[in-house]
Amino acid sequence: MERIVKKIRQEAKEKIERIKNKEELEKVRIEFLGRKRGKITELLKNITTLPLQERPFAGRLANEIKREIQQLLDKKRKEISSEEEVEERVDVTFPGRKPRIGKLHPLTQTTEKIKRIFVSMGFRVVRGPEIETEYYNFEALNMPRYHPARNEYDSFYLNKGYLLRSHTSPVQIRVMEKESPPIRIIVPGRVYRRDAIDASHFPMFHQVEGLAVDEKVTFSDLKGVLSSFAYQMFGKTTRLRFRPSFFPFTEPSLDLDIQCVICQGKGCKTCGRKGWLEILGAGMVDPEVFKKVGYEPEKYQGFAFGMGVERICMLKYGVDDIRLFFQNDLRFLNQF
Length: 336
Ligand code: DAH
Prior knowledge:
By secondary structure, the chain is α+β, with helices and mostly antiparallel strands. The chain has helices at residues 2-18, 22-33, 39-46, 55-88, 106-119, 134-137, 170-178, 219-234, 287-292, 309-317, 330-333, and strands at residues 124-125, 131-133, 162-164, 183-192, 204-214, 240-247, 250-259, 276-285, 301-308. α1 (2-18) runs parallel beside α4 and α2 runs antiparallel to α4. The radius of gyration is 43 Å and the shape is rod-shaped.
């Protein structure tokens, strides 16, 4: 009897020592103290088969070892659960992970800025379709079929006289057809041209169009509005130059230049040694355009302008390659 008890005791000690988790602990507990098959439980049951005088001693021995195993198991249980607690504990003083703050794309930021400037001067923002008809994209803007100016807008044609608009000017026509003067609108949006991709060309880009029509709109109004825009966009000290130009839908027409932001007018690679950079085209609405939308040319005058958002953004921030806007490289985008 004593020998068996000692053997079980030794075995239990070793097994308890090796326990690593709650599951193992429960297995060992059942092996020794389990109600049905536990080794100690069996031992206690067997006492009744011993001769009467041996029973008290055997009983005491068996109960002693039962208690001992119980204590060892309890101790082990505490060790395990305190280890697990350490693993789960949260350090509330540990600095958290900062969420990354997103930003608007530089072209969106530039468009927003352009919009804000013109809205403050009483213009309203409207939009038009990117799929246009040849009529709105060309004819109504005084560019009949085979007009040489069409070559400048090498377009993506779709079926049945539709095309991807090559400028935002057709929206002028759509608005004038629906509304009567006074009109003061700007039109931001995407435009498409069949240009080979290089540092300054991309087959899709963005424009903001402008149109003001009323009974006493003058060339001075045009110069005033555009000057105010250029100063707000590029700074009060920017020098401006209005230069004669040509567009089929305006007469007279002009291009607006700002002094080169890179060389301050001395002449460099960016401005082609001219010292000036073109930022937009504009002019007084051609009477032919008014006739197309049913406005009386004798009664109304207007001015219109159009600018490329990529170009404005590139000049403002010194970006030298239009492709950067469409590669979505965070190293570029994060700088704005
Ligand atoms: N639509 C012209 C272009 O894409 C830009 C333009 C020039 C718009 C003069 C105008 C304007 O409204 O008056 O090149």
